[in-house]
Amino acid sequence: MATSLESPSTRIEGDFLFLFGNDLARMDLMRRFYFLGSIILALLIAASGCKSPVPQGNITDDLGRTVQIKGIPQRIVSLSPSNTEIVYALGLEDRLIGVTTYCNYPPEAQKKLQVSGYSTVDVEKVVSLQPDLILADSIHKTEVIPALEKLGIPVIGIVAPSLDQLLADIELVGKISGKQNAASVLVASLKQRITAVEEKTAGASKPRVFFVTWHDPLWTVGRGSMIDDLIVRAGGSNMASDLKANQTIDLETAIQRNPEVIVVLSSMGDQAVSYNFLKNEPRFQATDALKNNRVYQVDSDIFGRTTPRTIDALEELAKLIHPELFK
Known about the structure:
This protein is an alpha/beta fold. It has twelve helices and 13 strands. It has helices at residues 8-50, 81-89, 123-128, 144-150, 163-177, 180-201, 226-233, 251-256, 273-280, 288-291, 300-304, 310-321, and strands at residues 56-60, 66-70, 76-78, 96-100, 114-116, 133-136, 155-157, 208-215, 218-221, 237-238, 246-248, 261-265, 295-298.
């Protein structure tokens, strides 16, 4: 009878090595799967970062309207200069197929097909472009938007009476267009600049500011407006905060309120006509603003639109109201 020369200890070691060898093979296979899974996950994350999910469902715009969005728009028409600037700021210019005659920023926007004025829109021309998204303004609410809606074209109304709403609008356009990441980065940058101004002017005195949009008759900007929000955040007190967003104010009332700082919007055509009126009107000479030579003219495009450049307006306004803080 043959006798095995293999000792129990040898058998045990052999079994262990055999089992351990199988375990090594299985572990190596598992590592390969984990590695492959990690690569796939990284690619999916990268892809989601480059392109946001296709928006589906209903969007509520600034006019309180419910608009159905089906997929990412590829043919966008902008019916206001403000909307055009937002489109460019989000890198959507390649999808922009139509603008207004007033869309002059960035300069490249002037090369786009012009389909309308501001209040006057050639609906037939717009429709002929076969847009899948139109960005409109409040001025279009009564006639233009209903006409376009009847034709089944999605129209988003964008109206920003405050910086918070402007930032929300940028994010909304980003969401609709599949540019959520670009919108988030832009909004974060703008928020930092807004905060920097607010922190700089916190605790400072609040001079009475008279913001003039036209001189004959005198037009100013009251509560519930972007300009009112800018004045407050820039460290001033809006002299017309008791009035509505855009309203006339009689000369005597304006003088009686004794503005300490007067900011005048540049005018179309003769851009300094309103500024010159306020500088030379004899009755205004008694105000603190005229006595201290604190009458300033600002760019109507930057201050009159609601775009990322509105933060430029905030920074400029803060320097005009509080030059002592920005030396």
